[in-house]
Each structure stands twice: as structure tokens, then as C-alpha cells.
Design a protein that fits this description.
Blueprint lengths: L2 E9 L10 E10 L2 E10 L8 H7 L3 H4 L11 H8 L3 E4 L2 H14 L10 E3 H8 L7 H7 L12 H15 L10 H12 L18 H15 L4 H4 L4
Parallel strand pairs: 1-4, 4-5
Antiparallel strand pairs: 1-2, 2-3
């Protein structure tokens, strides 16, 4: 059973090495390419102001963040590590998020999450759509994933959007189809020497005209009478 965590962050700026910090972090859980509905979300007091450009992107002011917990508090740091567990961590342009997450973990006296633990969706998108814009917004539009609920960048909504993009990059909803019941039914039928076909979810449109069907019915009633197979199934 493959468990994966889709992660996104918002920050005070672009580089943790120059003193920038996390202001928001969120995770969405996937199990076997299906969202489980479980998520992790925290706003974080960064102990500094955001750069004006960063604040324009995420809209999280110093006043809003003033009463939020610091990353090193167990409510954030330990809860995050517990939620991630041993799962692979998925992020878009993962080096950015990994740099901030590991910087915060190390400041809190915890081990960072090494690169092999991370899966970057940006190279996946670049391989799928070479030469195209492959930002999260561009991928959502390409896959027709709605951005209606997103006024500004936010870690939780972006993690949810990235989860949808990641699933599309891996085959979309078809990857999550549960074939267990269908396979079991087919296995039982095979043992019994039967072949079973379920109804089509989208019935095929008729390819014969009304006149052709009337002519066929007249032929059946005249030539085959009550021996016609079609009559047994109400198809004549």
C-alpha cells in the first residue's frame, strides 16, 4: 500500500539561508493514488516580517501571524513529522520546499528529510509537456482543475491542487479505479465456465435507422417467426 504526502509551503521570502522562514505549511495524504481526506495544516509565526513581494503572493501579514505557534513547538514540528511518517513527500519544485522544511527542522533540533524522500512534480511535468509552462497554475489549467477557490496562494489549497495535478500526471482517475470487485466477479464466472458482461456505463448510440429496424422486424416475423433469437431478448 503506497502512502504519499503532497506538501506545500508559504514563506517570508525566497532563501532560508538568508534568514527567511516558513509562514504556512500544509500536507495532503494520498493512499494508492487516491486522496484519503486527511490533511495537515499550520500557520507559523516566522519571527520576522515577510518581504513585500512574498506577502503580496500569500497575503499573510505580520499581524495575522503574530499569535501563531513557532515552528519548533510540538504542535507544529512534531505533529508534522508524525503526519508525514515514512511516506514519500511530493512537492512542485521540491528543492524550494525541501530547503525551507529542512532548515526549520534543523533549527528545531530535528533531522531534515533527505532528498531521496522527496518526489518533485516539476520534472514529471517537464517530461510530459516539454517546452511548455509547467507552473502549478499552468498545469491546473491544462488539466482543467478549477482554481475558483483560490484567491491568493495558500499552502493548503496549493497542496490540494498539486495532489490533483500529481494524479493527472500519473494517469488521472484511471489510476485509482478499484477493480477488486470486478476481478472477483470475473474470477467466479470463469470458474463456473461463464462469461459475464456488465452494462455499459455509456450505452452506444444506435447506428441503424428507424426504417432499417422496421424492415428487420418484418423479416424476422415473416421468415423466423417464433424461433427468432431476437424475440427472446426483446431486441427485435
Amino acid at each position: 500500500m503506497a502512502r504519499e504526502i503532497v506538501l506545500d509551503t508559504e514563506t517570508t521570502g525566497l532563501d532560508p539561508r538568508s534568514g527567511h522562514r516558513l509562514v504556512e505549511i500544509a500536507c495532503v495524504e494520498l493512499q494508492d493514488f487516491l486522496p484519503t481526506g486527511r490533511s495537515f495544516h499550520r500557520y507559523v509565526h516566522p519571527e520576522r516580517d515577510s518581504d513585500p513581494e512574498a506577502e503580496r503572493v500569500h497575503g499573510l501579514t505580520s499581524a495575522f501571524l503574530a499569535d501563531k505557534p513557532k515552528f519548533g513547538e510540538p504542535h507544529v514540528c512534531d505533529a508534522l513529522l508524525e503526519f508525514i511518517g515514512e511516506a514519500t513527500v511530493i512537492a512542485h519544485n521540491a528543492g524550494f520546499d525541501r530547503g525551507f522544511v529542512n532548515h526549520e527542522l534543523e533549527r528545531a533540533g530535528r533531522a531534515g528529510l533527505p532528498p531521496p524522500r522527496w518526489l518533485d512534480t516539476l520534472p514529471l511535468a517537464q517530461k510530459r509537456f516539454p517546452g511548455a509552462h509547467n507552473s502549478l497554475d499552468a498545469l491546473c489549467k491544462r488539466f482543467k482543475i478549477s482554481l475558483a477557490e483560490r484567491e491568493k496562494h495558500g499552502a493548503l489549497i496549493d497542496a490540494q491542487l498539486l495532489a490533483a495535478v500529481y494524479l493527472e500526471l500519473n494517469g488521472g482517475r484511471e489510476r485509482g479505479l478499484d477493480l477488486t470487485v470486478a476481478s472477483a466477479v470475473m474470477s467466479v464466472a470463469a470458474v463456473a465456465g461463464e462469461t459475464r458482461y456488465g452494462p455499459r456505463p455509456r450505452p452506444l448510440a444506435a447506428r441503424s435507422t428507424d426504417a432499417e429496424r422496421e424492415a428487420h422486424l418484418a423479416f424476422v416475423l415473416d421468415a423466423l417467426k417464433d424461433k427468432a433469437v431476437w424475440l427472446k431478448f426483446g431486441l427485435a
